[in-house]
């Protein structure tokens, strides 16, 4: 799915998340459990997918979201809203990429993330470098 002409907007993504995603995935991306099992997975935080997973790529996440979310209403979001919410989701910290090189986010980004699609690993978002892990 092509990137929107004007890029993505984290503030718009936060609005889409609150309106379309939080009911299942939680206000803070924490997911929902039934007993010990997640029925709706966390989208960021300690129990979410790590920085090495394909969903950390905004373009990959946007395409998945566009086709499958909200649950039971796949295809209802615009391409732009899917990009915005994917970027918002991936603007939060998550577990480290298991391929971390010498404890260096920069080296890991150069080797594994520089050409793997649109992602925020190693980028500064809201004053914090993402990718340091939890």
Instruction: Work out the radius of gyration.
Output: 14 Å
> Helix fraction?
25-40%
CATH architecture: Orthogonal Bundle
Order of helices and strands: HEEHHHEE
CATH class equals Mainly Alpha
How many E strands?
4
For CATH, the homologous superfamily is named as: Cytochrome c-like domain
Provide an overview of this structure:
The chain is mostly helical and 134 residues long. It has a single domain (10-129), classed as Cytochrome Bc1 Complex, Chain D, domain 2, CATH 1.10.760. It has helices spanning 10-25, 58-68, 79-89, 105-113, and strands spanning 32-34, 37-40, 124-125, 128-129. A two-stranded antiparallel ribbon has the order 1-2. A hairpin with a 2-residue loop joins β1 and β2 (37-40). The protein is globular and about 40 Å long. The model has no long low-confidence stretch (mean pLDDT 96).
Which descriptors apply to this entry?
single chain, 134 residues, mainly alpha, Cytochrome Bc1 Complex, Chain D, domain 2, two-stranded antiparallel sheet, 4 strands, 8% strand
């Amino acid at each position: 799915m092509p990137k929107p002409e004007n890029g993505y907007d984290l503030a718009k993504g936060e609005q889409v998340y609150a309106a379309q995603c939080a009911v299942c995935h939680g206000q803070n991306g924490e997911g929902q459990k039934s007993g010990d099992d997640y029925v709706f997975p966390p989208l960021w935080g300690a129990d979410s997918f790590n920085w090495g997973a394909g969903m950390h790529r905004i373009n990959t996440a946007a395409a998945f979201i566009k086709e499958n979310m909200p649950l039971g209403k796949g295809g209802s979001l615009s391409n732009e809203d899917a990009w915005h919410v994917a970027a918002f989701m991936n603007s939060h910290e998550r577990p480290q990429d298991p391929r971390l090189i010498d404890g260096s986010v920069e080296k890991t980004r150069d080797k594994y993330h520089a050409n793997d699609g649109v992602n925020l690993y190693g980028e500064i978002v809201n004053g914090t470098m993402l990718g340091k892990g939890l």
